Structure to design on (448 residues):
């Protein structure tokens, strides 16, 4: 047992009670329920436990919470998390009250326990533990905790632009969110794929028409939509046709390949996780597709009659929803602009509605902070760390790398099977404790 293990053990009742109270505050960003209570509670934790200077940063939506604790050197680390949670629906699928912390079989269950309140309070308690055991921080620590992550972080870029030269000035950003590797080993992520998502609607008439009376006279919106899709993507060549789409796609470096080689990979477990039986990829191919290749996905198509039997109609409209994952230095704004130009060719029938546009984010693999973070996480876990050059999913880390222009490390504390956004969201009790230790050792190692 180390000094931090002893301290956590002696204070765990208090730590658990703090987590329980944070969970009970709710903080559902889609409805606003409990947002003020959650802000008040998080701000009180910063003030009472860390003696931090705090500010509430107003936005056009839910405000962000800023906290600052001075240290003995000018080096500054900014920690990011979020206090908002998803709605718990469907509540009847939960085995316990989603806003009452429940412990069973070594896991905590509650809405937001993994995403992101358990991880957030583990950060705070890790810094608190360091202060109690060492009196002073070795460097400046700042927190920015937003309240709209579950709604796409729509106002986070504005906050970073407004306060980037003042409150948010830092040498390094550490994002504590997401899930560990499915093996249970800790993960350090250096980047993530970007995202462009949109909807194309084709409307050729005010209402459905009889396919005999109107056939060859009224345009079929499904066929028009199919023409648009073929302009965007070639199924024959298995490639995207959007102009300049592949500009900025980068190949993995030798160091990336070395890190990937150390990541566990089991084809059968991957097939089981995705519910398929035909993933014929070796490890290098699998991770190359997830980390360094963009995607073009149609997530839904809606039109016409899909009930029993047949209905002889020409539908009046067809809708398709798309999401595209971007990598490397692909330009999300340019790609979205070129998609709109393709859709405009089919005016007045076709219109497009943009939902989100996040550029990919990447931190240089030769950053000296990486080895320091690895040392800290391995001290906290007694396990070999997995380094992922790129996360397959999308988070708004571009606000740190592209707007704040600071290197960014993503370190998730939650287990891979946390069921975030679903009923019975959970966090392993030991992973919660490891999260506290990870925050403690990050302070210790970056201070040495």
């Amino acid at each position: 047992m180390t000094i931090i293990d002893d301290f956590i053990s002696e204070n765990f009742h208090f730590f658990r009670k703090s987590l329980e109270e944070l969970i009970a505050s709710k903080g559902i960003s889609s409805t606003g329920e409990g947002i003020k209570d959650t802000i008040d509670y998080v701000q009180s934790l910063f003030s009472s436990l860390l003696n931090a200077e705090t500010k509430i940063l107003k936005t056009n939506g839910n405000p962000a919470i800023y906290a600052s604790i001075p240290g003995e050197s000018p080096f500054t680390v900014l920690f990011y998390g979020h206090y908002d949670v998803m709605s718990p629906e469907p509540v009847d699928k939960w085995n316990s009250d989603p806003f009452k912390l429940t412990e069973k079989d070594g896991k905590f269950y509650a809405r937001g326990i993994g995403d992101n309140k358990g991880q957030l309070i583990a950060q705070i308690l890790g810094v608190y533990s360091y202060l109690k055991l060492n009196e002073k921080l070795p460097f400046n620590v700042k927190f920015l905790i937003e309240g709209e992550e579950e709604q796409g972080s729509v106002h986070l870029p504005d906050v970073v632009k407004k306060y980037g030269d003042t409150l948010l000035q830092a040498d390094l950003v550490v994002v504590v969110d997401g899930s560990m590797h499915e093996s249970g080993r800790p993960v350090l992520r250096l980047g993530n794929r970007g995202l462009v998502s949109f909807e194309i609607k084709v409307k050729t008439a005010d209402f459905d028409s009889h396919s005999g009376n109107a056939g060859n006279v009224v345009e079929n919106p499904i066929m028009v939509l199919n023409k648009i899709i073929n302009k965007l993507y070639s199924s024959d060549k298995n490639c995207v046709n959007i102009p300049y789409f592949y500009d900025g796609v980068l190949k993995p470096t030798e160091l990336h390949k070395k890190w990937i080689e150390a990541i566990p990979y089991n084809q059968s477990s991957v097939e089981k996780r995705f519910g398929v039986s035909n993933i014929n990829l070796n490890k290098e191919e699998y991770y190359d597709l997830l980390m360094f290749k963009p995607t073009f996905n149609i997530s839904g198509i809606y039109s016409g009659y899909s009930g029993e039997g047949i209905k002889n109609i020409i539908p009046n409209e067809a809708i398709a929803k798309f999401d595209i994952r971007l990598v490397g230095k692909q330009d999300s704004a340019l790609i979205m602009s070129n998609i709109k130009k393709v859709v405009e060719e089919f005016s007045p029938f076709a219109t497009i509605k943009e939902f989100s546009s996040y550029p990919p984010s990447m931190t240089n693999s030769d950053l000296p902070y990486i080895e320091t973070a690895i040392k800290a996480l391995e001290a906290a876990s007694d396990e070999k760390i997995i380094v992922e050059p790129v996360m397959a999913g999308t988070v708004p880390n571009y606000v740190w790398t592209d707007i704040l222009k600071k290197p960014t490390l993503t370190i998730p504390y939650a287990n891979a099977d946390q069921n975030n956004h679903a009923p019975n969201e959970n966090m392993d009790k030991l992973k919660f404790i490891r999260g506290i230790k990870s925050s403690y050792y990050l302070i210790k190692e970056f201070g040495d």
